[in-house]
Amino acid sequence: MVRAHTASVLEKIRGDIQNGKYCQAEFLPSERELAQNYGTGRGVIRTILRKLRTENLVCLIPGRGAKVIKTKKKLSLERFLVRFNGTIIFPKANEAMGILAGICAEAAENHAEVVMSFSDTAVFMNELASRHAKGDIQGLIFLEGWERKTMFSSLETVGIPYLVANQERDDSALCCRMDFRNIGRQAGRYLTARGHRHIGVVAGPLENYFYKEILAGFRGALAEDEISLAPENIIQPGENGQYPDLRQLLLAGSRPTAVFAMRDHRAMKFYSACRDFGVRIPEDISIISYDNITWPDAAHVGLTTLEQPVEEIGREAVEMLKEWIISGVKPPERNLRAKLIERGSVRDIR
User: Fold this and answer.
1) Helices marked H in 138-237 — which ranges?
2) Which of 30, 95, 205, 311 could anchor a disulfide with 102, C-beta 3.0 to 4.6 Å?
């Protein structure tokens, strides 16, 4: 049993080692000096050094003395960059700000610092490589819409962890994003479960990977009930994002009983067209949408939608970056699912 005096001196020396008073990989003062410094005898110091050896704080080298063992610093998330693409405009502004809020909230919980960057590409890369080499910046999160793949390859060459939060393109970069096909699948299953079999789509540009994947998931959900999606009922945007074919869809004798809008701001245009042509929602036609972000009046008009969890995307992106920094291994892509927000724009016709 360690005596009270010895235990007190042991605690002081241990604390001084852990607090950096004695440099790692260097020898402690001699036993005589330690005894003088801590007001005790050399026998007590010998006992303490043997105890510190069992705690793996020092190693005892015959003829040389006690050497402080160098410990590897435990990695943690401390400081990382967030890079904007420079063009955050409606209807993307609320989405981007929500993701950024999630990034900042998760960083705060990890006591980490977020550094925003809008720098020129060449200057940005040179500065980032230098700061990463010094340990000042640990990694990087791009917000969606980033197109400079050459920067991704440069980051990989230098060995800087990075990922894209909410990437909606078909890209090889590590991403944290929505499960696009599941968005379409959820919408399709919701409509068919309420008896709808004659269904239309207010789509986005289908050459876009994001919308193409959503449509594939929607078709797949309908196919499970042997429901086909007629080409004429897939309405795509024309010039200036308008939908000139909505008139034909809404006034056709074989009008669909329900539609799926691929974003709430597209549902807004559908509602406007319905008002213009005297079509009632949901009495004459039902609608489900996706995002719960891009149309401020969506809740007021009662739009049922699949919510995009933007803050969760930001939080997950930080967790992925943290995992890569600490483990040194690139984590797998993470795909999030939408949450159903029911407000009454879909009528049950079973």
Assistant:
1) 149-158, 180-192, 209-223
2) 311
Which residue's structure tokens are 């609608």? 287
Rounded Cα gap, residues 313 and 55, in angstroms: 42
DSSP 3-state of 116: strand
Q: Summarize pLDDT for 285-332 with one digit per residue, the tens.
A: 999 999 999 999 999 999 999 999 999 999 999 999 999 999 889 999
14-55: pLDDT as tens digits: 888 888 888 877 899 999 999 999 999 999 999 999 999 988
Residue 113 and residue 220 in one domain: no
Q: Name the domain count of the chain.
A: 3
φ, ψ of residue 297 to 5 degrees: the values are: -90, 10
Place of tokens 């010998």: 46
Is 341 a member of any domain?
no
Please give, one letter per residue, the 3-state secondary structure of 201-216.
Answer: EECCCCCCHHHHHHHH
Give residue 113's domain range.
79-178+310-336
Q: Taking Cα atoms as reference points, which of 189, 270, 199 lies closest to residue 237?
A: 270
- pTM (two decimals): 0.77
CB atoms within 10 A of CB 289: 28
> At 248, which CATH number?
3.40.50.2300
Structure tokens at 54: 């069992």
